[in-house]
């Protein structure tokens, strides 16, 4: 197979990717936009079904992506530094998978060729979450369907 036929995420390191390639790794699942709890001793993450107010649930993308860090100061931008210890990202996150030396799953849009596979595989939070503007106590919203 010629080098040009090998997908960029297979033959390039995360550090070698262009900004466009980097951004295309996001599968649009919306999991990183959910509120979560972390046990500081065990580093166990518990996700809730409560999403950031800026998550457009119909497409599972930030509705104001360019200004996300201004709108939500603790919104974490995925960088190489963050990926040095990506334990807090969902196990299915492409950034985490590649940082850990694992392949992208078959349902990832870069592999399947369509974003619909994120939905069909059950990896999208669309239709399964509520906005933080509607939520009460986050302790009442802990879920176990995210890996």
Provide an overview of this structure.
The chain is of the alpha+beta class and 147 residues long. The chain is built from 6 helices and 5 strands. The strands form 2 sheets. A 3-stranded mixed sheet has the order 1-2-5, with no helix packed on it. Strands 3-4 form a two-stranded antiparallel sheet. A hairpin with a 6-residue loop joins strand 1 and strand 2 (45-51). The longest helix has 6 residues, at 19-24. The radius of gyration is 16 Å and the shape is globular. The mean pLDDT is 95.
| Strand order across the largest sheet | 1-2-5
Helical residue percent? 10-25%
In DSSP terms, counting alpha (H) and pi (I) runs of 4 or more, how many helices? 6
Task: Provide the gyration radius in Å.
Answer: 16 Å
Relevant terms:
single chain; alpha+beta; three-stranded mixed sheet; two-stranded antiparallel ribbon; 6 helices; 5 strands
Short description:
This protein has 147 residues and is α+β, with helices and mostly antiparallel strands. The protein is built from 6 helices and 5 strands, in the order ααββββααααβ.
Topology overview:
Elements: H1 8-11, H2 19-24, E1 34-38, E2 45-51, E3 55-56, E4 61-62, H3 68-71, H4 94-99, H5 109-112, H6 116-120, E5 130-131
């Amino acid at each position: 197979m010629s080098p040009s036929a090998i997908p960029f995420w297979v033959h390039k390191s995360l550090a070698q990717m262009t900004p466009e390639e980097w951004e295309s790794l996001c599968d649009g699942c919306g999991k990183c936009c959910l509120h979560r709890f972390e046990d500081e001793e065990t580093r166990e993450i518990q996700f809730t079904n409560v999403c950031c107010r800026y998550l457009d649930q119909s497409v599972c993308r930030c509705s104001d992506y360019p200004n996300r860090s201004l709108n939500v100061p603790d919104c974490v931008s995925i960088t190489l530094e963050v990926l040095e210890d990506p334990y807090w990202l969902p196990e299915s996150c492409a950034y985490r998978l590649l940082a850990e030396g694992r392949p992208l799953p078959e349902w990832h849009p870069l592999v399947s060729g369509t974003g619909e596979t994120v939905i069909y595989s059950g990896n999208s939070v669309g239709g399964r979450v509520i906005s933080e503007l509607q939520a009460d106590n986050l302790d009442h919203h802990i879920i176990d369907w995210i890996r």
